[in-house]
Amino acid sequence: MGSTISMALLLVFAVLLLNAHLGSCGCFKRIFAFSDSIIDTGNFRSGSIWAPPYGGTYFHHPTCRCSDGRLIVDFYAQALGLPLLPPSGPEEKTGKFPTGANFAVLGSIALSPDYYSKRYNFSMSHWCLDWELGSFKTVLARIAPGKAATKRLLSESLIVFGEIGGNDYNLWFYDRQRSRDTPYKFMPDVIARIGSGVQEVINLGAKTILVPGNFPIGCVPVYLSGHKTNKSTDYDQFGCLKWYNKFSQKHNQLLRQEVGRVRSRNPGVKVIYTDYYGAAMEFVRNPKMHGIDDPLVACCGGNGP
Question: What residue stretch is flagged as signal peptide (predicted)?
Answer without folding.
Answer: 1-25
